[in-house]
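FYI - complex with fe (iii) ion, inputs then prediction.
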Amino acid sequence: MLPDAAAKIAPIIECFTIRGSEQYGREAVTQLQHALQCATWAEAARQPPALIAACLLHDVGHLLHNLGEDAAERGLDDRHEYRAIPFLSQHFPPAVTEPIRLHVNAKRYLCATQADYWADLSPASRLSLELQGGIFSEAEAMDFIAQPHAKDAVQLRIWDDLAKAPHHKTPNLAHFLPILTSAL
Ligand code: FE
């Protein structure tokens, strides 16, 4: 890896090294497991490096605050989809950062447009949905999906929901570093 690229992804590795072992909200996986599972789904679907990187990094915002993993239960929206953007947008293009920024609203969109989506959400995800503004109206859903990168955000969101399986084996973080590098 070129020194320049290594310097850019070093803070990401550090973030997962220091806080990746924290529980992912109220789910039975760690933050790092969740990120790796989400990225693994994207890689299995032969998506480009930018979307695989977005999947790996979509919840880095959870690792940049100290509100605690029970923030939603205390009635707090941690606004994690926005927290990582100033940092990530220094090095990654909109094809990476926009699906991340939009992935919470993608849940609001999916609830509005897919009959079974809400019923299949985990209890923790239903709780945070309310704090994040609730289900989109039909007009809000149409506006949402018309934005650039919104379809990628929806796809990310579907893998995000799958990435909560305690026994799902994935490659490790090192496996994804060349993909991250090519998404810079
Ligand atoms: Fe997530």
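The mean pLDDT is 93. The domain at 3-183 is CATH 1.10.3210.10 (Hypothetical protein af1432).
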